[in-house]
Design a protein that fits this description.
The complex is a heterodimer. In chain A, helix 1 (about 25-40) packs across helix 2 (about 60-70). Chain A contains 13 helices and eleven strands. In chain A, about 60% of the residues are buried. Chain A has a nine-stranded mixed β-sheet with strand order 3-2-4-7-1-8-11-10-9, with helices on both faces. In chain A, strands 5-6 form a two-stranded antiparallel sheet. In chain A, strand 2, helix 2 (about 60-70) and strand 3 (about 75-80) form a beta-alpha-beta unit. Chain A is globular. By secondary structure, chain A is α/β, with parallel strands linked by helices. Chain A has helices at about 25-40, 60-70, 85-100, 120-130, 145-160, 165-175, 190-195, 225-230, 260-270, 290-295, 305-310, 330, 340-350; strands at about 10-20, 50-55, 75-80, 105-110, 200, 205, 215-225, 235-245, 280-285, 365-370, 375-385. Chain B is mostly beta strands. Chain B folds into two domains: about 1-60, no CATH class; about 60-135, OB fold (Dihydrolipoamide Acetyltransferase, E2P) (Beta Barrel), CATH 2.40.50.140. Chain B has helices spanning about 5-10, 15-25, and strands at about 30-35, 55-60, 65-75, 80-90, 95, 110-120, 120-130. The longest helix of chain B has 10 residues, at about 15-25. Classes of the chains: A alpha/beta, B mainly beta. The interface of A and B includes residues 140 and 154 of A.
């Protein structure tokens, strides 16, 4: 029997650093800045942190390196790699650690600097060698783009989803980004701009793909009782779910159905809520097909209806459902793995600190992270109250 | 206890990848078939992902397949090629490519026939288009 974590843990402070172009700062430097901001915003000192979760696209020693850098001697730590979904999957791990008494305050942190310090071809080769895919690599997919392009092509074939509908996801993201001073790309973007941009892996153009920027983010989780003492507006975790069904796109059974259908159902069941209860929704938009798939799999619309659902401004500012209110990976920024920024934006909205892009009356939020090539899916439901 | 005849099956660990590509180099397309549940799988493993049995044999699929999805990669140097997910008639799905066709004319649902391409970096299982719809 699964023991519910509903309302038992809460997010305290959050921190951001090195967004866009970090000017040559190292990954550890920007993560440390974001972490320090998150810990101080939590009403804590770094010496109060006894749990830490982080992961890296490069170093398998990352949690030990970050704990060393920050001067933390954790009684609980974890560094499992779930790709870009990691930092939402980590909410569940942190909650289990706190509720089983392993630690009191967990720092979840991540950052990377691929824009100011692009990966050398040698480093990219090393990463490929450490995660060999000998049955895909010989066909030279331009991954991750090609894997998502295969999913988009199948969705278009099966459900009549159009390139225009995909483009509308990018247009909506840019309209939100225009109201976010922290977003990397804020200029106007039209449907035609997306369609006529350079093709990368059909049907996806470069504007169907997330940005490559620097950036670091961090947040602190604690049990609800201390969280209420420490912070004026703790953000409660009402439900979590995590599922992964494959690693490689050729092992995905149905390219139009992701494991979000499982992670989302688990999170909603734990929260005792349903999609129509969500005031704001933050979905990992590494590519424009992603929000379409996730809105379907999470139950915001029926399977196959994601295309019409995202078009004509429905997820843009002023639309029926506010999605990716910071501008998303498509326009806010995307430093390798993104889901920590989904959590931070949801918390910012629920605290009514989102400035011009604030969604009025936002009391509940869904955050959904994706990792690998639609491989790992993690969902959490957050709320201002229990 | 396993019921498999390891020497007959030839599925020694961890040589699955070598076995698959060595076979292709000899002009033979073979993938694992599970004697226990009578299902094929790909990529090759040391135990069946359907039923967990180690009683596996390398067998030749028919070579008949259909395109499940396809994308055309556009390289900065102007090179274009198709990357496809192909469903074998026997069930397994694999990544592959289509030879002797403009990548932009490759369509989901097209009927395929396997072929083995010999390239500088090794043998490659590929497909040709033999019909428009299954």
């Amino acid at each position: 029997m699964r023991e519910s974590i509903r309302g038992k843990v809460a997010i305290l402070g959050t921190g951001l650093a090195g967004l866009g172009h970090a000017g040559g700062a190292t990954e550890q430097e920007i993560i440390a800045k974001a972490s320090r901001a998150a810990v101080h915003d939590s009403g804590l000192r770094m010496s109060d942190i006894d749990g830490i979760i982080t992961s890296s696209l490069t170093s398998p020693w990352w949690v030990m390196r970050m704990a060393e850098y920050l001067g933390i001697r954790p009684t609980f730590s974890d560094s499992t790699m779930f790709g870009g979904s990691s930092f939402i999957a980590d909410i569940q791990i942190a909650a289990m650690a706190i509720l089983s008494g392993r630690c009191r305050h967990v720092l979840v942190c991540y950052g990377s600097n691929p824009r100011s310090v692009p990966s050398s071809s040698k480093l990219n080769e090393m990463r490929a060698a450490l995660d060999p895919q000998p049955y895909e690599h010989p066909y030279k997919p331009f991954n991750p783009v090609s894997s998502y392009a295969l999913a988009a092509a199948r969705h278009m074939h099966q459900y009549g989803t159009t390139r225009e509908q995909l483009a509308d996801v990018a247009v909506a993201a840019r309209q939100w980004a225009a109201m976010n001073p922290d977003a990397f790309m804020r200029g106007p973007l039209t449907r035609q701009d997306v369609l006529q941009a350079k093709m990368v892996s059909s049907p996806l153009t470069v504007r169907d793909c997330c940005l490559v920027t620097d950036g670091a983010g961090a947040f602190v989780l604690s049990a609800t009782a201390p969280a209420r003492d420490l912070h004026a507006t703790p953000i409660h975790v009402l439900g979590c779910g995590h599922a992964h069904w494959h690693r490689q796109i050729s092992c995905m059974e149905d390219l139009t159905v992701t494991a979000a259908s499982e992670s989302g159902a688990t999170a909603f069941a734990e929260a005792g809520l349903k999609p129509s209860d969500m005031d704001v929704v933050q979905l990992y938009d590494a590519f424009t097909i992603n929000p379409i798939l996730f809105l379907e799999d999470l139950g915001f619309c029926k399977k196959g209806e994601g295309g019409p659902f995202v078009s004509e401004g429905r997820i843009a500012p002023g639309g029926e459902l506010p999605v990716n209110t910071n501008g998303g990976g498509l326009s806010f920024g995307h430093p390798g793995m993104y889901s920590i920024f989904l959590v931070i934006e949801a918390v910012t909205q629920l605290r009514k600190q989102a400035g011009k892009r604030q969604v009025a009356g936002a009391e509940t939020a869904l955050v959904h992270g994706n990792g690998g090539v639609l491989s790992s899916q993690a969902t959490a439901i957050l709320s201002t109250g229990v | 206890m396993t019921t498999g005849d390891e020497s007959k099956a030839g599925l020694s660990v961890p040589a699955q990848e070598a076995r698959y590509f060595e076979s292709l180099a000899k002009g033979v397309f073979e993938i694992p078939f599970c004697v226990n549940c009578e299902r094929w799988h790909f990529f090759p493993r040391t135990c069946c992902p359907h039923c967990d049995s180690e009683h596996l044999e390398w067998r030749r699929p028919s070579g008949d397949a259909t395109i499940y999805s396809t994308t055309t990669v556009h390289k900065p140097n102007g090179e274009r090629y198709a990357v496809c997910l192909v469903d074998l008639a026997e069930g397994p799905r694999m990544m592959s490519t289509i030879v002797q066709a403009d990548p932009d004319r490759v369509r989901i649902g097209q009927v395929l026939r396997s072929t083995i391409e010999v390239r500088d970096d090794g043998p490659l299982l590929a497909f040709t288009i033999v019909g428009d719809q299954a």
